[in-house]
C-alpha cells in the first residue's frame, strides 16, 4: 500500500508498541502493531482483488443504493448495541476529542485554567469573529462542538461524553439509520444538555444540518465514509467541511486497500473497483491514502496526518493470522481560507 508523508514533524505516530520481530513468536499475542507487508503478500492481495472485480448488473447495484436505508435499519434492529464495543482508543489516536485530558496532544499545546488548549480557545474566538451564530440551534452556547457522522448506537459519542468533562462541550451525532439514532436517544447516558442526535443522510448534500456552517471544532468519521457510493464521497466531504470553524479539524479512520475484509469477499459481491456489498446488503469501500488526501484537499482542508495502520491479528486457538489495513486521517480547515474557498462559501451561506 503506498504511503504519503505523515505528520507535521515527519514522524509516524505509533498505533501500538507490540512489534513482531521473531515470526516464530506470532501466536504469543492476539495482535501485532505496524506489520509491514512483503512484496509477495501485496502481489497476492492484488491478485485476489482482481479475481473478484466483475461488477454486479446495474439493476442490482441500483437496488442496493435505493434500499441502503432499509439495510442499515435492519442491521441495527438485529444487533442493537451488541455489535460494537465502545471506542476508548479514540482518545489516544484523536486527542482533539478531549484536549484537556491528553498531555501528549499531537500539537503539544498549552492548557489554560479552564482545562482547554489555549490554542483551541483562541481558535474558538477567531471562529466566532468570522461566523455570526444564530442562537436558535442545539448547543448554540457551547464553545467546543464535536459532530460524529455515522454514530451508530453511540460507541464513540458516549465515551466522549464520559471522558470529556469540559462544561463548554456539546456533541452532535447523526446516522443514516433511524433505528440507530433511536437507540442512542434511549441510552440512559443520552443528555440533551450536552448532546443532540439526529437522522441524516451524509450523501444528501442538499439536506440541512441542524448546525450553522462554520461552527464545529471537530468532525469525526469512523468507518462511515466507506459506506457511501464512491461517486457521492467528494460532495459529502466538501459539505461537511463547510460546517467546520476556521482551524477546525476532520478526523477519519476507515478501511484501507487490501484489508482482510476486502480479500474475503467472494465473487458476486463486487459493485465497482474496491466497492463491495456484504451479505446483509450494506456496502463498503476500501481506500488508499491518496484517494482520501485528494478528497480532503479538494474540500479546502489541509493535511495534519494521513497514515496507514497495518495490524496483524491472531486467532491463537485456530492458529490463524489476519492482516488488517486501516487508514487514519486528520485534516484541518485553514484559519485564513483560500480565495477559491471563500468564493465557494459565499454561495452557501445557509445550511
Automatic annotation (TrEMBL):
Keywords: Methyltransferase, S-adenosyl-L-methionine, Transferase, tRNA processing. Its EC number is 2.1.1.-. It holds the Pfam family Methyltransf_23. GO terms for biological process: methylation; tRNA processing. SUPFAM superfamilies: S-adenosyl-L-methionine-dependent methyltransferases. One of its GO terms (molecular function) is tRNA (cytidine-3-)-methyltransferase activity. It is an enzyme of class 2 (transferase). InterPro entries: METTL2/6/8-like, SAM-dependent_MTases_sf. S-adenosyl-L-methionine-dependent methyltransferase. Belongs to the methyltransferase superfamily. METL family. This is tRNA N(3)-cytidine methyltransferase.
